[in-house]
Write a structure and sequence with these properties.
single chain, alpha/beta, Aspartate Aminotransferase, domain 1, Aspartate Aminotransferase, domain 2, four-stranded mixed β-sheet, 15 strands, 36% helix, binds ligand PLZ
Length: 447
């Protein structure tokens, strides 16, 4: 691997208790101007960040094992990304691609055509957020098929806009009291190896969903199936082998558009460019965001040209979609990922972290499952000796990690999953230190 240069020391170093006095001051100011509806899982305010370290306003250096929810895969302030942004800002920050287009947008589309699974002809449209990409994938699928129904899965997360709230499974905090929701969304059972009946294979779990779709909806009424190849917010659920290929094959046979939501799994995170590649699944449309642009807001859909080209002129767009600064950041991000072989790095992180966490699981009785792929890793915490979720313990572990200066995110329908999403540029020592802290927190909280 090419050596990585960091601007800030890649070390955990605490100079105050967390949160420190300046963070507490900001937290107090915040309450008079920002509603409680906007949550922050870490009560520490950022002043600087680089690689896998976040420095707070009190001068504490924390290890970031969350990447701002799977965004800063190339690190928090990669020099190539920062320079590309500075260069672009020095020329123009916006013209609106729907008014006066520019080359950066085309270059990002060319790269996504080449990087996404499948060697068919493709088209790409750029947007700002993951939710917006999902909304547009569904628009294209409905127009292309002339059908209404859209199938999502148990534990799915697809966003917070009205349509994507409907696609998202979990009520609290995403949906409660925010309805009515968009119609014609149907939810099917997911493959969840840790919680499915013993021995249920991936193809069998797919047949379970397919039978439900055929009985409840009829294949010819379904515009699209949308699925995260590894579910993110829902608990880092890795479906059993064969689940995704069986569903994708059924979709193809029935003219149902197969949409892979790779907003969280995308861009080297799982050790491939996209998680679908692991089982050779080629989606009709793929949604992307987060890791695509090193922290700048950018999202995309890339889909089969024969579907995407059906949309009438002017049917897709938005003021900021494919903003030139975000495009410049994306191009630099993709170059960095290739240059530093971040796919290889993600696999190496997975080997280290999964190995350590599986060894720990053999020793403590609160870990029900360790799973993941590449640098997208989870531990599901349970009451000792059962499969009963333990969300309180999960919160306790995350809080203990934070107190020691390690940022850990949680997720899961039951709130009992610790997830690790380190920047892929994290160095071995920092990763080991972060895992030491996590291991100690689990041992202390659990036994
Ligand atoms: N699809 C698979 O993971 C965003 C959201 C956190 P936006 N996940 C993090 C939160 O509480 O809001 C996500 C995702 C998948 C779509 C989205 C939505 O992406 O960029 O947040 O709109």
């Amino acid at each position: 691997m090419t050596d990585i240069t960091y601007r800030l020391p890649q070390k955990r170093h605490l100079v105050t208790e967390l949160p420190g006095p300046r963070s507490s001051e900001l937290a107090a100011r915040r309450t008079s101007v920002i509603p409680a509806g906007v949550g922050s899982s870490v009560p520490v305010y950022a002043a600087d960040a680089d690689g896998a370290v976040i420095v707070d306003v009190d001068g504490n250096s924390l290890i970031d094992l969350g990447s701002g929810i799977a965004v800063t895969n190339v690190g928090a302030s990669d020099p190539r990304v920062a320079q590309a942004v500075r260069d672009q800002v020095g020329h123009f920050t916006h013209t609106c691609f729907m008014v006066t287009p520019y080359e950066g947008y085309i270059r990002v589309a060319e790269q996504l055509s080449a990087l996404t699974p499948g060697d068919h002809e493709k088209r790409t449209v750029l947007f700002n957020s993951g939710a917006e990409a999902v909304e547009n994938a569904v628009k294209v699928a409905r127009l292309a098929t002339g059908r209404n129904a859209v199938v999502a899965f148990d534990h799915a997360y697809h966003g917070r806009t009205n349509l994507t709230m409907a696609l998202t499974a979990k009520n609290m905090p995403y949906k409660r009291d925010f309805g009515p929701f968009a119609p014609e969304i149907y939810r099917m059972p997911m493959s969840y190896p840790f919680r499915d009946d013993d021995g249920l294979t991936g193809p069998e779990a797919a047949r379970r969903a397919i039978t439900a779709m055929e009985k409840q909806l009829g294949a010819d009424g379904i515009a699209a199936i949308i699925i995260e190849p590894i579910q993110g917010e829902g608990g880092f659920i890795v479906p059993a082998p064969g689940f995704l290929p069986t569903l994708a094959a059924w979709a193809r046979e029935n003219g149902v558009v197969f949409i892979a939501d790779e907003v969280q799994t995308g861009f080297a995170r799982t050790g491939d460019w996209f998680a679908c590649e692991h089982e050779g699944v080629v989606p009709d449309i793929i949604t992307m965001a987060k890791g695509i642009a090193g922290g700048m807001p950018l999202s995309a859909i890339t889909g089969r040209a024969d579907l995407m080209d059906l949309v009438h002129v002017g049917g897709l767009g938005g003021t900021y979609g494919g903003n030139p600064v975000a495009c410049a950041a994306a191009l630099a991000t993709l170059d960095t990922m290739r240059e530093l072989d971040l796919r290889g790095r993600a696999r190496a992180i997975g080997d280290v972290a999964l190995g350590r966490l599986r060894a720990l699981a053999a020793e403590v009785d609160v870990i029900g499952d360790v799973r993941g792929r590449g640098a997208m890793i989870a531990i599901e915490l349970v009451r000792p000796g059962t499969a009963e979720p333990d969300p309180d313990l999960t919160k306790k572990v995350a809080a203990r990690c934070l107190a020691e200066g390690v940022i850990i995110l949680t997720c899961g329908t039951h709130g009992n999953v610790i997830r690790l999403l380190p920047p892929l540029v994290i160095d071995d020592d920092l990763l080991a230190d972060g895992l030491d802290v996590l291991e100690t927190a689990i041992r202390a909280a659990g036994n």
